[in-house]
Amino acid sequence: MRTQTEAAYKYLEPRPHRWRKILWIKGRNMHVWHLVATMLREGETPEQTAKNFGLPVEAVLEALDYYQRNKALVDAETEQEGQRLHAKGPL
User: Fold this and answer.
1) Do 56 and 50 contact (CB within 8 A), yes or no?
2) What angle, 0 to 180 degrees and rounded to 10, lies between the N-to-C axes of helices 57-69 and 46-53?
3) Residues 20 and 48 sit within 8 Å (Cβ to Cβ)
4) Which member of 5, 42, 72, 88 has the greatest number of CB atoms within 10 A?
């Protein structure tokens, strides 16, 4: 059964993953945090980010909305991913 949050988004989708629960950008190997983090880091507007990633502006706005509504989950998974990468050591 899909949650209300998942059903509300046109450009975001859940994907099977061992521990990650946050949504991904449809048609991309990118979850919401990757898009939002890039936008924030670069100081871009949603329109600039959409253009840079070849996405509709609506997809970026959905990602921002999802992040705002699910910030605790996204931040926790981002922290967990950082810990996993740190534990693996230098590449």
Assistant:
1) yes
2) 120
3) no
4) 5
State pLDDT tens for residues 4-15: 444 589 999 999
In angstroms, what CA-CA distances link 35 with 3, 71, 72, 89? 22, 14, 17, 25
Whether 49 and 64 have beta carbons less than 8 Å apart is answered as: no
Global pTM reads 0.80
Q: Is 19 helix (H, G, I), strand (E, B) or coil?
A: coil
Q: Is the dihedral of CA 75, 81, 84, 88 positive or negative?
A: negative
Query: What is the number of H-type helices and E-type strands within the chain?
Result: 5, 2
Contact 6, 23 (CB under 8 A): yes
Structural domain that includes position 30: 4-88
Report residue 80 as tokens: 């967990």
CATH number assigned to the domain comprising residue 47 = 1.10.10
Count of residues making up the chain: 91
